[in-house]
């Protein structure tokens, strides 16, 4: 009976270093392997000890990988927005070719050889898309996961025996030679100051979010919209655009679709790892509203919470002055039917009355020309999107003057040329 206990310790540790070599605690594996001497694969032990010589090496490597993923995501979103803003979370194959040309991976000149290389890369991309149909919505565009897989595919085709080294070289080349990356505006302070207002409007905003999230989930999961209410609520980009158009955000010279798409990207988590990370949660939805309010009223002396109320004022004006169709959702128990738009209108007017119907963001004055409530409403009404009836007058003795600060879209930034650096990864015929 004693011999099986003697054999057991010799046979069990042998596969241990190899089995655990891919885990995050690689330094622990290295120390265990050294205690067993020749037991296990000495090549793996040597590689691990060389790769992680200190306890901080593994965490630093993970941090570098996260930073690389964040930069790749920003680059992906930038090129996804270049040709169209249909969906900034999906990239066309034409954008992939443009990115590779800008980064110097393939020749972007008009020579015959360059055209041949571009044609061959397009064939490779098309074949890759057919063999990797991992887009849930069935589109022929690349998701971020498919984009990373395509870069890995390019690295394996490079001829380098080490595919990991080839992938790192390709990514480093793309990140070094890309145009100046877009800077994400930090709004942590604004979110903190708007926390009270968001809590006051949580009921209508959450119902509004759930209505559009139900449509997004039905598309993502390909299930019935009623069943989608039971899934984690997330709002997709197409539904965000529908929301923005309905409530007057993407209209009347307030904000362009491209600016709205940029704000949508900035409201997502950094380097989203899965499909649910590339659509808005409720927290991301409220962050998007704060970013939109900051964009609509960029005046520094106005507090962030007042800018947010000014955005709600604009949404109220766009909704109350038209005849919106009912947006109804049913809760899980089917005991309550809520009209989302009317709920928002009633909720806003109740809080607006407490503030004596003040204009939250002030008038936009140009020279000696003053913008009063009649001119502002007439200007919005003349666009044809608003109805002909003015807003309902409140049951109050005070006079309500409405003059929204509507900022016209600024001039587009000039195209920034990529910095010239040594080419590290190229694709040739």
From TrEMBL:
Domain of life: Eukaryota
Source organism of this protein record: Lagenidium giganteum
Region (Disordered): 1-46, 363-429
Biased composition (Low complexity): 17-31
Gene3D superfamilies xrefs: EF-hand (1.10.238.10)
Protein name: Uncharacterized protein
């Amino acid at each position: 009976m004693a011999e099986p206990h003697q054999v057991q310790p010799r046979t069990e540790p042998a596969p241990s270093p190899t089995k655990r070599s891919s885990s995050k605690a690689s330094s622990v594996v290295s120390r265990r392997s050294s205690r067993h001497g020749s037991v296990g694969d000495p090549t793996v032990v040597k590689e691990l000890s060389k790769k992680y010589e200190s306890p901080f090496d593994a965490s630093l490597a993970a941090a570098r990988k996260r930073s690389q993923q964040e930069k790749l995501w920003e680059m992906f979103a930038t090129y996804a927005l270049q040709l169209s803003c249909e969906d900034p979370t999906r990239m066309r194959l034409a954008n992939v070719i443009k990115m590779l040309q800008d980064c110097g991976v393939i020749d972007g000149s008009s020579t015959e050889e360059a055209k041949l290389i571009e044609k061959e890369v397009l064939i490779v991309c098309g074949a890759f898309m057919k063999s990797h149909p991992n887009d849930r919505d069935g589109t022929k565009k690349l998701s971020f996961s498919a984009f990373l897989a395509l870069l890995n595919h390019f690295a394996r085709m490079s001829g380098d025996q080490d595919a990991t080294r080839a992938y790192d070289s390709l990514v480093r080349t793309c990140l070094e030679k890309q145009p100046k990356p877009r800077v994400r505006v930090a709004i942590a302070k604004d979110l903190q100051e708007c926390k009270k207002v968001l809590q006051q409007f949580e009921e209508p905003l959450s119902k509004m979010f759930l209505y559009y999230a139900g449509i997004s989930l039905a598309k993502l999961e390909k299930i019935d919209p009623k069943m989608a209410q039971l899934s984690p609520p997330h709002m997709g980009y197409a539904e965000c655009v529908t929301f923005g158009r309905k409530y007057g955000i993407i209209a009347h010279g307030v904000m362009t679709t491209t600016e709205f798409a940029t704000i949508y990207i900035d409201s997502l988590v950094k380097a989203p790892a899965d499909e649910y990370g590339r659509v808005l949660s409720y927290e991301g939805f409220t962050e998007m509203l704060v970013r939109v309010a900051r964009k609509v009223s960029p005046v520094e002396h106005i507090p962030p919470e007042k800018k947010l109320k000014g955005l709600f004022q604009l949404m109220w004006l766009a909704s109350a002055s038209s005849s919106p169709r009912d947006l109804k959702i049913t809760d899980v128990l089917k005991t309550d039917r809520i009209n989302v738009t009317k709920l928002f209108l009633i909720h806003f007017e109740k809080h607006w009355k407490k503030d004596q119907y003040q204009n939250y963001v002030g008038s936009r004055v140009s020279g000696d020309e003053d913008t009063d409530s009649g001119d502002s409403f007439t200007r919005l009404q003349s666009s044809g999107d608003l109805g002909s009836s003015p807003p309902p007058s409140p049951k109050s003795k005070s006079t309500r003057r409405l003059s929204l600060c509507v900022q016209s879209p600024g001039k587009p930034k000039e195209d920034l040329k990529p910095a010239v650096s040594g080419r590290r990864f190229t694709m040739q015929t």
